[in-house]
Amino acid sequence: MQTSSDRHEYPAHWEADVVLRDGGTARVRPITVDDAERLVSFYEQVSDESKYYRFFAPYPRLSAKDVHRFTHHDFVDRVGLAATIGGEFIATVRYDRIGAGGTPATAPADEAEVAFLVQDAHQGRGVASALLEHIAAVARERGIRRFAAEVLPANTKMIKVFMDAGYTQKRSFEDGVVRLEFGLEPTDRSLAVQYGREQRAEARSVQRLLQPGSVAVVGTGRAPGGVGRSILDNIRDAGYTGRLYAVNRAFPEEQKTLDGVPACRSVRDIDGPVDLAVVTVPAAHVPDVVTECGEHGVQGLVVISAGYADSGPEGRERQRALVRQARTYGMRIIGPNAFGIVNTSPDVRLNASLAPEMPRPGRIGLFAQSGAIGIALLSRLHRRGGGVTGHTGVSTFVSSGNRADVSGNDVLQYWYDDPDTDVALMYLESIGNPRKFTRLARRTAAAKPLVVVQGARHGGVAPQGHAVRATRLPHATVSALLRQAGVIRVDTITELVDAGLLLARQPLPTGPRVAILGNSESLGLLTYDACLSEGLRPQPPLDLTTAASADDFHAALARALADDTCDAVVVTAIPTVGEGAAGDAALAEALRSAAAAVPTKPVLVVHVELGGLAEALSAATSTAPQAVPAPTTAQAAPGTTAPTAPGTAAEAAPGAPSAATPGPAAETGPGAPSEAAPRSPARGAAPHAAPGGASAASPPSPSVVPVPAGTHLIPAYPAAERAVRALGEAVAYAQWRREAADPGKVPEYEDIDEKGAAEQIAGLLARGQGLTLGDRETCDLLGRYGVHVHRALPAPTPDDAAAAARTLGYPVALKATAPHLRHRADLGGVRLDLADEEQLRRAYAELTELFGKPAELRPVVQGMAPRGVDTVVRAVIDPAAGAVLSFGLAGAATQLLGDMAHRLIPVTDRDATSLIRSIRTAPLLFGWRGSAPVDSAALEELLLRVSRLVDDHPEVVAVTLEPVVVAPHGLSVLGASVRLAPPPARDDLGPRTMPAY
Fold first, then answer.
1. In angstroms, how far apart are the furthest CA atoms of the chain?
2. How confident is the model at residue 188 (pLDDT cuts 50, 70, 90)?
3. Nearest Cα to 591, choosing from 610, 565, 564?
4. Which residues fall within 8 angstroms of residue 640, CB to CB, at 6 or more apart?
5. Helices H / strands E in the chain, number of each
6. Other C-beta atoms within 10 Å of 927: how many?
7. How does residue 462 score in pLDDT terms, banded at 50, 70 and 90?
8. Strand ranges (E), 134-195
9. Contacts of 23 (CB under 8 A, 6+ apart)
10. How far apart are CA 785 and CA 760, in angstroms?
11. Which end of the chain has less neighbouring CB within 10 Å, N or C?
12. Burial class (CB within 10 angstroms; exposed 0-12, middle 13-18, buried 19+) of 703
């Protein structure tokens, strides 16, 4: 691509796909000599005004010399990048390295002049901002530290691009030109600007998929049945508010409609724009469909078709080609092998999925990488059977299939500021970019609950079809890091839905204190025990006896909620003999009215086979009259089965947000339609039987019930442990929210020698690509960060041991440091408190007699440290998750029980405080059974210093301090190892890019 005179080969790693401000995509790549015609064509489409702003004079066309200059680069001192769509340029940027006085220069000059040109039709899409990020990253790679740009004062758009970038800048005005100079090192502000732009762009790209104004289903069968026809029917029957088209090459030319839907043989034949295409044709025909869609200006694709990475290596290559082809036209893809998408908003009502019934509208967002799990989640939220009752519905649902393009990260960006979503539930089988997911999860969880269940967590490999980077971290560590980011981690989809329903329906608890009341002593005791198991603080259960009336429940619940020593209430209920539906409705109203009086505390119900109560608790309420099931079992909601699972109280009134509701937007009730239009059962399946013999597909007989605004849904569970487990997760999440408001700070230590450490590391790495440091080098490097290792001297002979002891001073310890004996005091490889030379020589003889020759044992002599608790501190850089700091007690607690706590680096002072308290054996550090508490402040400082070392120098890929003996006053690091290597590439600090394919 470049001539032989070029100094560097084509830098393919600079190529990247980016999401633009409006949600479309573009490709950024270096400009080469082969781009001459593209450059001329691009320039011809730029307005005279834009050309004037670029060259400060009328410049109608490029000369041959200009074209040569702008397409011939050495990729070091002269670099040009282009943003392309459909292979054509839409914008360019270039830099030229300059020296003193602005003349052309070569390295080591570290300043460059930068200039942009954006086609008028694409201005305002954020193209220049994206190009600035990429050209700045290229410049830093080539040793350039500053950019200079000259801009006409009237070119306000370009000035704004530079000023808004967040870099440290200097601005001047001379000779009628604005001169901007800015450093290229990322700053907190520039990263915040970049992340903000990333969020808005990626959220907009998902919004275009979930809120299309027009949809074409490509591959619609002429006869009922089949995937394409089923999806077309589902979209139509859900009441989609936009324009819908059926597309099939096999349609006769004279056919204009299909069951009332406009029919076309090709997307090109559609008269008008198409925002979304749902592709259901066989994989072999998908490329032709993508071409048609791209040329017609379709914004996004949902690819239902299978036969891609899910089918093996050949399919994986087909999947890569699909993504590359779609991105060429600026389109995003959900899938392939996807189940579909759903948006229940009354302004959209899109069911572009294989789900035969439109889910009820609600405040829960669902994301599933598995179609089967997606079906299960939708079913459990829609019906009273399968473990969950109630009318809480979904806002949006995305099944990503093979997750070739749109991923959970993209959907999180959308949910973050989606006013229709209060709680996010995600089923993940792989995490493609753990660093980014953790960052987005932390930000999302600070605004609304995020509940995650991860499948395939013990398989060691991602499911077929998922292309993800491998992590060396065990699942328990990944889970701990997700919890640190505020993610509510659960193990099953039952727990996922249980927690989601509570968080969507009730306020967050302010603490762990739980009141328990009900008409069953046994059920109350089970609930009490479950609370203790979850780390909650239950009050003794209040037994109202089986004779309790609805008024008794109301009074007891009102008293519990008014009690300042109570943060949440669990109501237990068993059926009342003889009262039937009327009694159930009365009890539900009693609980609802009592809870409404104190809307700041969560209320949960544990019921046993109490169908009438579950239905009554599920009744939809609002300030406006609404249709709700009458209190008879024959009028169950669609999809209702035996009521053996959680029910709910009424939806909150639309437009009446509650300050107590988690998330930025309060749950709104079905002021808009709360049910999908009556639907027939899924094709090929029998209708679900409702209690009393009513068909699940039959709508309930409505009755009008006005109720007060602000009423919370009360979730009901069929088992105490499920209710309490969900409550425990809510308590932990609420605590995280409070702590996240003040995340702490990374302390500065004046005695840290960062520059000296960098020079030492560079010198050591000059020996090779990766190495484990020797004892002296380890001590020197750690010492530069204030981590001092207790001195140990080698003792290859008894005489050397005696000499070492005289140097260190008695008492001493004699240790075998061979790998199979290191840190294994239980095997007898350590002798402590040797008071004199005689004891030392005797211990030396015993060790060699038991374990072999000194050359095999590698004995060392070390001065005795103050007695305390043995701990271990580790830091590692994982290529997928990033730098992780771990802490635990040395010995069996860590090795056998895996009792380690983990935090992402950099660690703040609050992180360090919580880290040492997060392990199960933490009481041993804080005076367990009368022992003296250790110096926790010294331990926290050690953790912070190790964190700083790894964060400042990513070449430090592993650190182990073991054992660290923490005494009541101070601590001693008795063993240490450090490994250096070139750091793994980090994509979270570079310019915005989409996953490479």
1. 107
2. confident
3. 610
4. 383, 384, 385, 615, 688, 690, 691, 696
5. 27, 41
6. 12
7. low
8. 146-151, 169-174, 177-183
9. 201, 202, 204, 205, 206, 207, 208, 299, 332
10. 13
11. N
12. middle
Preceding peptide of 811 cis, ω within 30°: yes
**How far is it, in rounded angstroms, from Cα 317 to Cα 380?**
36
Q: Is the Cβ–Cβ distance between 411 and 206 less than 8 Å?
A: yes
Which long-range contacts link 170-178 to residues 24+ away (Cβ below 8 Å)? 176/152, 177/56, 177/150, 177/151, 177/152, 177/153, 178/150, 178/151, 178/152, 178/153
Angle in degrees, CA 317, 428, 390, rounded to 5: 135
pLDDT at 816 over 60: yes
Q: What is the pLDDT of residue 679?
A: 34
Among 621-630, 787-796, 802-811, the range scoring the smallest mean pLDDT is: 621-630
pLDDT digits (tens, 9 = 90+) for 579-631: 556 677 888 889 999 999 999 999 999 987 655 555 566 553 333 333 333 33
Q: Give mean pLDDT, residues 628-647.
A: 36
Q: From residue 261, give the alpha-carbon distance in Å to each of 744, 760, 822.
A: 58, 72, 75
Torsion 515-521-524-525 (CA) sign: positive
Enter the tokens of residue 680. 């027939």
Q: Cα–Cα distance between 649 and 256 in angstroms, integer?
A: 47
What one-letter code names the amino acid at 69? R
Is the pTM higher than 0.90? The answer reads: no
Amino acid at 664: P
Q: Cβ distance 572 to 538 under 8 Å?
A: no
Mean pLDDT, residues 971-978: 93
Q: Identify the band that residue 672 occupies on the pLDDT scale cut at 50, 70 and 90.
A: very low
Mention every residue, 6+ apart, whose C-beta is less than 8 A from residue 358: 234, 237, 238, 239, 342, 344, 349, 351, 676, 677, 679
pLDDT of 361 over the 80 cut: yes
Q: In this structure, what token pair is assigned to residue 956? A: 């430090």
Mean pLDDT on 703-725: 70
794: β partners:
860
Residues 770-785: pLDDT tens digits?
789 988 999 999 999 9
Residues in the chain: 997
CB-CB neighbours of 609 under 10 Å: 12
Q: Is the pLDDT of residue 681 over 90?
A: no
Among 213, 283, 198, 202, which Cα is nearest to 244's?
A: 213
Sheet holding 812-816, edge to edge: 792-794, 859-863, 812-816, 830-834
Whole-angstrom Cα distance, residue 28 to residue 51? 21
Residue 702: CA atoms inside 13 Å, Cβ hemisphere, count?
A: 11
- Which residues are 886's β-sheet partners? 874, 902
Q: Residue 663 — left, alpha, or beta (φ > 0 → left; ψ -120 to 50 → alpha)?
A: left
Residue ranges in 417-474 assigned as alpha helix (H) = 434-445
- Average pLDDT score, the chain: 84
Element (H, E) at 627: strand 627-629
Residue with tokens 């230590």: 749
Question: ω before 419 within 30° of 0 (cis)?
Answer: no
3-class DSSP assignment, residue 361: strand
Closest by CA position to 330, among listed 91, 27, 13, 127:
27
Per-residue b or e along 716-744, where b marks 16 or more CB atoms closer than 10 Å to that residue's CB: bbbbbbbbbbbbbbbbbbbebbeeeeeee
Neighbour-count burial of 70, counting CB atoms closer than 10 A to its CB (0-12 exposed, 13-18 middle, 19+ buried): buried
**Distance from C-alpha of 596 to C-alpha of 585, rounded to nearest angstrom:** 16
Q: Which amino acid appears at position 152 of this protein? A: L
Instruction: Quote the distance between the C-alpha of residue 249 and its chain's center.
Output: 41
